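Render this sequence as a predicted structure.
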Amino acid sequence: MTRAMAAPRSGSFARRAATASSAVRRMDGVLLVAVAALAVIGTMLVWSSTRTWAPGSTGLVKKHILNLCIGTVLTGMAAMVDHRRLRAYAPLVYGLSLLGLFLVITPLGSTVNGAHSWIMVGGGFAFQPSEFAKLGLVLMLAMLMAQPAAGTDRPRGLDVGIALVVGAFTMGLVMLQPDLGTTMVLGVITAAALVVAGVRKRWIGGLVLLVVGGAVAVWFLDVLEPYQIARFTAFLNPASDPRGVGYNSTQSLIAIGSGELFGKGLFDGGQTTGRFVPEQHTDFIFTVAGEEFGFLGSVTVVALLGVILLRGMRIARQCDDRFGTLTAGVIVCWLAFQSFVNIGMTIGIMPITGLPLPFVSYGGTATFANMIAIGLLQAIHIREQSF
């Protein structure tokens, strides 16, 4: 009896192992290689930008590598999830993300760099719920937009209205912190879900008017903090106060421009070694690439990001169900917008908003959210390859 009962368990384990192995073989290898290459480059840049001041010279690098290892595990876990079943749990994931945003505005929340958006968990680690709010919003909007109206492939008007409320509510909670950069990303996620779902043009036009009106209201109702207004002022005219509000932009351009074609070499950047650029291991990490790896190194980083976006678009296009297509498409828009804003603010074409560069910047929660997003893309790819 014992042997008879043990055999099925052994066979079941073997079947699960075989299935997992098969799923691994069906992953998008190009996507994985591009993410891994960016992670390696990012680790070198984080080391270079922190070695002169971080505890033990390698303290933050070790922590960054640990975060990448955890993120890799999360990628694998997300890839093994059947995204079609995940649709039923989208409200739960969204609800948990909202719970995190609510906890931030309680005494549990902590302020870092002017934003009350962190929860300290001890041991030098901090948790930023707004990063996971991006994932929760992506899944919730994909679930809502995946239900077409009768006789058409467009979502129902009721679902569109609910989606707008869901997006606005999430953005409102993040603005209370206030975190303008993440709010902008959440707005792009909401707009992307509507566009990818193919809603009627009048909805898109109404959304544009709503965004413009909201931006005007935020500006004139003194919702923004003084330092956020100063960032926009510096963007419009950085030369007006190069030692004040325009300091970050000015030093960023100097660092990138000094790298010329081939760069000064890893650890040899004067701007980086002298810490002339603030937050260089997070928001301004692209300046390290520009100074030490030069134009060619910077283009390599952009090209690898482009590969990730193109593979994500390919996965979205080949998916055979609306929920998967919407999830993949919105994730691509999220990563594309955040990458554009981060790189743009270092070269002076976008205002400074405090958004990290995906897969490159130092970070914990942001790294986890980005890697889970890659895992979701892989999950969709695996299932479409299984047919």
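Summary. The two ends are 39 Å apart (CA to CA). The chain is about 70% helix and 5% strand.
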